[in-house]
Specification:
Blueprint (H helix, E strand, L loop, with lengths): L2 E2 L5 H10 L5 H12 L13 H10 E2 L4 E7 L5 E7 L5 E9 L8 E5 L3 E3 L8 H5 L1 E4 L2 H17 L6 E4 L9 H12 L11 E5 L3 H10 L4 E5 L5 H7 L8 H15 L3 E7 L7 H10 L5 E7 L13 H13 L4 E3 L13 H7 L21
Parallel strand pairs: 1-2, 6-9, 9-10, 10-11, 11-12, 12-13, 13-14
Antiparallel strand pairs: 3-4, 4-5, 5-6, 7-8
Helix pairs in contact: 1-2, 5-6, 7-9, 10-11
Iron/sulfur cluster binds next to helix 4.
């Protein structure tokens, strides 16, 4: 079976082309065709000799994830994709546009999936409720970005930011995710700055430790949603394996190793985790850490009974954290009307029951501006 071309590093291309009797610089041309230009056929690669293209075609597969469905928000700022992988697994990706603001240029952020399904079982996540399928390869993750970048290129734009916040827990598939980061940031490919790539975790401690040791200066976002173990055990079940004390100590280790500020995502749910006392507890929990808080009032969803706090309560929560010395941003979820939570589009397409409605990994908190 042919190898997925999007899964290969430049070094692997070099080995391949030299084994085929071509000069090593052909590997660099090939890498740019595959990773930057998103070539979908060998005929396009007109600067490569025809015999080399034929030999490569026997060994490499060029296919990108197939778009089964698109769902766009009314304001045109968010587009959600249901994608099909080569083995038929369905995953989701989201593209978000952030218009030019003050001195910041227009941004195009792509939120990608790292697994088909997810084993973490977070309470208010459609993906978590549907269970785990399999890990994605680096090529399948790169393929999501390249496919969406091709769409943007047709409009004279390009992907500027990538967030691993779609389906799956990225740090439970860390080797492939780190490989994806290296491929996306390669200067002959999309050349994304590592600072424009964010990994979002629900608190998978072994993965946080691996990321700390890896030395990849990407941004790390951690979804907390609760400041005590009892509540967090219910909302984010991985907390039973890695309780808050262990999670926070891994974050301290991460910060010691990298010096980087962390983003803490906290979904505010009326009457559950939105009191000033919980805000004080949260501030105490992260004391000594350099963090930025993203507060995300939950979308009202009848199935879950969750509702957002009043603006006054959000403001009070905000003030407690700010008084403790932390920058805080209050964010709204994007595309609430387009099955925006992670796993919802897939669940809708497959006719599976929807349980979620709000996310921490899908679209909510995806706004990367504060990170
Ligand atoms: S929120 Fe993220 S980590 Fe939790 S179940 Fe959903 S996809 Fe998995």
């Amino acid at each position: 079976m042919a190898t997925d071309a999007h899964n290969c590093t430049l070094e692997e291309y070099e080995q391949l082309v030299t084994a085929l009797g071509a000069e090593p610089y052909r590997a660099r041309q090939l890498f740019t065709w595959v990773h930057r230009k998103g070539a979908s056929s060998w005929e396009e690669m007109t600067d490569l000799p025809r015999p080399l293209r034929s030999a490569l075609a026997e060994r490499l597969e060029l296919s990108l994830p197939r778009v089964l469905r698109r769902a766009g928000s009314e304001d045109g700022m968010t587009m959600k994709y249901l994608l099909q992988l080569a083995d038929g697994e369905q995953i989701e990706a989201v593209r978000m546009r952030y218009p030019e603001k003050e001195r910041a240029r227009e941004r195009h952020t792509v939120c990608i999936s790292s697994q088909a399904g997810c084993a973490m079982g977070c309470l208010f996540c459609a993906t978590g409720q549907a269970g785990f399928g399999r890990n994605l390869t680096a090529g399948e993750m790169v393929g999501q970005v390249v496919a969406i970048n091709k769409e943007l290129q047709r409009a004279g734009r390009r992907v500027t930011h990538v967030v691993f916040m779609g389906m799956g827990e990225p740090l439970a598939n860390s080797e492939a995710v780190f490989q994806t980061v290296r491929l996306l940031s390669h200067s002959l490919g999309l050349h994304l700055s590592l600072r424009r790539i964010a990994i979002s975790t629900c608190g998978f401690v072994p993965g946080i430790q691996r990321l700390a040791a890896e030395g990849l200066p990407v941004r790390l976002a951690v979804s907390l949603h609760a400041a005590d173990d009892e509540l967090r055990n219910r909302l984010v079940p991985i907390n039973r394996r890695h309780p808050l004390a262990e999670l926070v100590s891994s974050l301290r280790y991460y910060q010691e190793m990298t010096g980087r500020r962390l983003t803490i995502a906290y979904t505010l749910i009326r009457g559950l985790n939105d009191s000033e006392q919980q805000a004080r507890r949260l501030a105490a929990l992260v004391q000594g850490l350099k963090v930025h808080f993203n507060l995300i009032p939950v979308n009202e969803v009848a199935e879950t009974g969750f509702a957002p706090p009043s603006p006054a309560r959000v403001q009070a929560f905000h003030q407690v954290l700010e008084a403790a010395g932390h920058p805080v941003t209050v964010r709204q979820t994007r595309g609430a009307g387009i099955a925006a939570a992670c796993g919802q589009l897939r669940a809708t397409a497959s006719g599976r029951p929807r349980r979620g409605g709000q996310v921490e990994s899908g679209v909510a908190g995806v706004s990367e501006g504060g990170r």
